[in-house]
Known about the structure:
single chain, 369 residues, alpha/beta, six-stranded mixed sheet, 11 helices
Amino acid sequence: MRKSIIAVTVASAVTLLAAACGSAGTPSSSSSSTTGTGGTTTGKFLGCMVTDTGGIDDKSFNASSWQGMQQAQATDPSKISVKFLQSTSAADYASNISAFLGEKCGIVVTVGFLMAQATQTAAKSNSSAKFAIVDFPKFPQTNIDSLVFNTVQDGFLGGYLAAGMTKTGKVATFGGQKLPTVTIYMDGFWDGVQYYNSQHHKNVTVLGWNEKTQSGEFTNSFTNLTLGQTISQTFISEGADIIFPVAGGVGLGAAKAVQNADNAAGSQKINMMWVDTDGCISAPQYCKYFITSVEKGIQTAVKTSVTDAANGTFKGGAYIGTLANGGVSLAPYHDFASKIPASLQTEINTIKQDIISGKIVPVTKSPVQ
């Protein structure tokens, strides 16, 4: 099984620029980085990350996590160095973690709900080692920092916005896999549409998911763009004019379907929302179709875990990103800033504050912590 391991140092101006701009290209090896005794770059704290199968440049949670690693390094490049191992299948999770434990990394960051078992097993067997995991609720072990995000909140805002922007009265969402970290977004999106309907006496329909029955459409992949394109084409043929894929890089397939539909129509009639990151930054070629992105602040959470470990203040436990602490949010509207009615933007801002205050509690059957 092919794996790539790459050490990155701040000496690479290109890498730093990419991190500062929020891009997620695969980093290059640096000849100035020397691995010494104990697996640390000489005189440096070594932060290590294991990707999920989506890969380092998935335009989503793996890419965001790597950006957080790079941002941690940038806080003190003389002290902190970071690297990653890429998983090409679930069989790589445990061996990649083990490889980094062999290098005595100061912290091992694992990415994704599916890496929970391998992370917990390693943490139990290596109680003095430090771990962080993105997108999995709190473990009993104190040497794991669980980074989770209450994305039902910003998913709710996204659903409300989609309902307010649709011209056909149909919007759609689909997931990469039926995991709590996926369906929590879809729950929020569905519930936001229902709230819009109740406030405006409309009947906007959600294709692809039902929060009450927990049933919907899934590609069962975070890498197969063709499946994302096929599902989206089906939604479009059924009348949906706004699509929200919760499927990592598979969302690029959805974007291609949207682009093709608009090109065929000769005008921009179908649009979409991106997930996890600001799509206009991670997939700028499709920015014109993104009404917004339903984001979670993975970069900041990962950066904090790594810097805490480097500074000796790591405590483990759980971080929960919310609208209140900025851990989840809607991205800027970019090209749609002048297309979204001012009244709808005001409603979104009001609903955001109502969620923060507890006046509105979005519904989800997915665990947050």
